[in-house]
Amino acid sequence: MSNPILIGQAEEIDLVQPKVRAMLNNEGFYVGGDTKQDRMIVPLVSVGGRVFCMKIDTEMEPSRFLPSLTLHGPYGPQAPVALNEQLALAFIEQFEIVGDNNDSRGPSDEEKFVLREFVLQLFDQQTIDDLNREKAVGSGAAEG
């Protein structure tokens, strides 16, 4: 059940996080975690647009599993992928420019060049050092 919020013109805002919405639309077994609690693991099952939590309250005796057991996993929460120069450059190929009326297009060769230069500068150690130096000079001047 959605709870619409009206702002100006009637516009429905989805209160469900995008990750959860994707899980609702893709049935299967999921393992939830929490970035603020490393050891938190919650087994979740998405079926028919609903999500069910499986309680972890009964310890299983390992010797009771039958030889016919099939086992897959472990499936655990995964840390976000760290963005590096190579990955950022690869994203340029998937980049889309969205216009005023939501028309999208891929970047032109010239726009791709600008994006590549931006990414290269973003990960360039000299650029990072220069920015840190400017920041230090700017903060020192503000104090004095």
Q: How would you describe this protein?
A:
The strands form two sheets. A three-stranded antiparallel β-sheet has the order 1-2-3, with helices on one face. A hairpin with a 2-residue loop joins strand 2 (37-47) and strand 3. The protein is extended and about 65 Å long. With 144 residues, it is an alpha+beta fold. Helix 2 (85-92) runs antiparallel to helix 3. It has helices at residues 18-25, 85-92, 109-122, 125-143, and strands spanning 28-34, 37-47, 50-53, 97-98, 104-105. It has two domains: 1-56, no CATH class; 82-144, no CATH class. The protein contains four helices and five strands.
- Strand order, biggest sheet? 1-2-3
Gross geometry: extended
Helix percent reads 25-40%
Question: What number is the mean pLDDT?
Answer: 78
Kindly give the count of domains.
Answer: 2
